[in-house]
Amino acid sequence: SVVVDTTTPEWSPLIIASDDPSKPLPWVQPDSTNGYKFGARVTHNGQVWESDYNDNVWEPGVFGWHVVEE
């Protein structure tokens, strides 16, 4: 399943993160109003990444993410 952030109704929701950390979705570029939450996990370039802070709009591997070692 996925998480849709609807806490701010004036923004269009964007599906960007799975609510199951064992099944991360592929990273998509968010815009400035709907970045990834702290702890969100995504897949990107063959690795699983976890966001290091809220409202993260950076690409994994550039800034604000760390690789999840399983």
Could you please describe the fold and organization of this structure?
This protein has 70 residues and is mostly beta strands. 0% of the residues lie in helices and 30% in strands. It has strands spanning 2-4, 15-18, 25-26, 41-44, 47-51, 65-67. It has a four-stranded mixed β-sheet, with no helix packed on it. A hairpin with a 2-residue loop joins strand 4 and strand 5 (47-51). The chain starts with a strand and ends with a strand. The model has no long low-confidence stretch (mean pLDDT 85).
Q: What is this structure's SSE topology?
A:
Elements (H helix, E strand, L loop, with lengths): L1 E3 L10 E4 L6 E2 L14 E4 L2 E5 L13 E3 L3
Parallel strand pairs: 3-4
Antiparallel strand pairs: 1-2, 4-5, 5-6
Highlighted features:
70 residues; mainly beta; 4-stranded mixed beta sheet; two-stranded antiparallel ribbon
Strand content of the residues, in percent? 25-35%
Biggest pleated-sheet summary: 4 strands, mixed
Lateral strand order in the biggest sheet: 3-4-5-6
Structure annotation, total helices = 0
* Run of helices and strands: EEEEEE
Instruction: Find the structural class using helix and strand composition.
Output: mainly beta
Low-confidence stretches: none
Rg calc: 11 Å
Any idea what the shape is?
A: globular
The N- to C-terminal Cα distance equals: 21 Å
Number of strands: 6
* Helix proportion: under 10%
Q: What is the arithmetic mean of pLDDT?
A: 85
